[in-house]
Amino acid sequence: MTRLPHDRYCDEIDRQVERFGTVLASGADLSATVPTCPDWTLEELVLHVGEALRWVDLLVRTRAREDVPVARVPGASGPGVRGDAAALEEWLAQSGAAVVAALREAGPTAPVWSWAGDSTAGFWARRMTHELVVHHADAALAAGHPLGTVPADVAADAVDEWLWIVRFVQRNLPDRPTGELRLPGRSLHLHATDADPALDAEWLIELTEDGIAWRRGHAGATVALRGPLTSVLLAFYRRLPLDAPGLEVLGDRKLLEFWLERASFG
Predict the structure, then answer these.
(1) Is the pTM of this model over 0.90?
(2) In the chain, pLDDT over 90 holds for what percent of residues?
C-alpha cells in the first residue's frame, strides 16, 4: 500500500515522543512491569525506545551502508542515572528530536541501511512511527493510563506495515513461526468500524502456500476481527485481548489466535 508522506511520519514521531513524556511526567512508577512486555519495567521500555531512536538517528545521519552496533551509538544507554523520570523524559525528548531532524534532512529516498531490504530513510521514518505507537500503548498500560486513539491514517498504515513485515519474515526467515502461516483456503478479515469509508480500513489476509497475501477492502473470510481501528490495530499487535471492549471476533477464532501466536518479526 502507498505510504504516508514523509513529513507525516516525522510529525507523528514528534507526537508520540511527547505522549511518552506525558506518561513519564505523570508520576508513573518506573519499576512497574509492562504487562504486554513482562520482561521489562516501564523504565526499561523507555530505555529501549530511546536506544532505538538514537540508533536510527545515527544510521540516517551518517547514511550508513551497513548495520551499526548499538554499542557504538553515543548516548544510547540512557541518561546516566536510573529511577529519575525527569532525566529519562529529557533524554527521550532529545532522542526523538535528533531522529526527526535527521529524517527531515535526509528525505524519504536517501540511501540508508536497513534489515528489511528497503534501504531508505523513508523505511526508518515509517518503522519508528509504528514502533512508537505500539510501545506508547505498552507504556500507557504499565502506567494505568487510557490508551487513547491512534490517528486513523497512522493506524491503518501500521496495519499495512505489520502485514508487510510478516510477509518479509516468511520469505527471508522460513524456519520462524511465521512459516506456519501457510494455510491455503484460510483467511482473515480486519474491519475497522469507526473509520472514514474513504480510508478503506478493511483488510483481507489470505494464508497462501507462497506466504500471506492481502488487500484492502471488504470480503468474506474464515475469521473476522471487527472494532474501532485503534483497538483492531492493538489487538493485531497483541497489545489488547480479543475480548477487549468494542472488539468482536466472527468465525474461526482459533485461526485468529493461531495467527497472533505466530505473526512476529521472527
Answers:
(1) yes
(2) 97
Q: Is the pLDDT of residue 107 over 90?
A: yes
Domain that holds residue 37: 6-143
Query: Which of these three, 143, 165, 199, is where a domain ends?
Result: 143
Q: 264: pLDDT confidence band, cut at 50, 70 and 90? A: confident
The lowest-confidence range among 93-102, 122-131, 257-266 is 257-266
Domain boundary among 103, 125, 143: 143
Q: Which residues contact 192 (CB under 8 A, 6 or more apart)?
A: 152, 155, 156, 199, 201, 202, 227, 228, 229, 232
